[in-house]
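Lab channel / #folding
Pinned by the channel admin:
"Please post every new chain as: sequence first, then the structure tokens as a reply. Keep commentary short and put observations after the output so the thread stays searchable."

First post following the new format, from NK:
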Amino acid sequence: MGIYQQSDGGLSADSFGVGTFTSGLYYTQLIAAGDSTLVTTVNLLVVARFPVARTTTFDRIVGEVTLGAVGSTVRLGIYADTGGHKPGALVLDAGTIDGNTLSPQEITISQQLVPGLYWVGAVAQGGTPTVRSKSLLDPSIGQAANTSFQRTGYQRSAVAAGLPDPMAPAESSSAIPKVLLRAA
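Reply from TO:
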């Protein structure tokens, strides 16, 4: 059974359109908060979940810098789930966008994702640009009962070059760079 299918015939996430994609449209990680901005931490990779209900090919990955940092880049990528609701094996290191160009920036890709859970995110390298972001509690990521720290994804520090494989996250994260994928 897939992550979003139920053996009892009940409704799955796919029944509500979660993880289904229309050609030519852009989709972001599965979090439901309005856009904000995030001052990045250099070499801190942050990812959030991205469910896929049907096999889909994506032809663009997008990040947006809102306040630049000279000499910096933002590396974008996709990870597979470990099966334990955490990012694991690297699926795609898409390369970098310019951390000093204030706009949404696209990288052309050709990445097919089969049904399952993925983790999409970004890491600032060579500086700390401010990027478009999202943040809201992801109920599937645990937290202590007495904390107001809302977890939305996972992070890993010391990512100064290509994306690590596997990600092996160190801890959960409260805010994530908004990354979009365009369905082909």
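NK: Residues 4 and 12 are 5 Å apart (CA to CA).
TO: also worth noting, The first strand starts at residue 26 and ends at 28.
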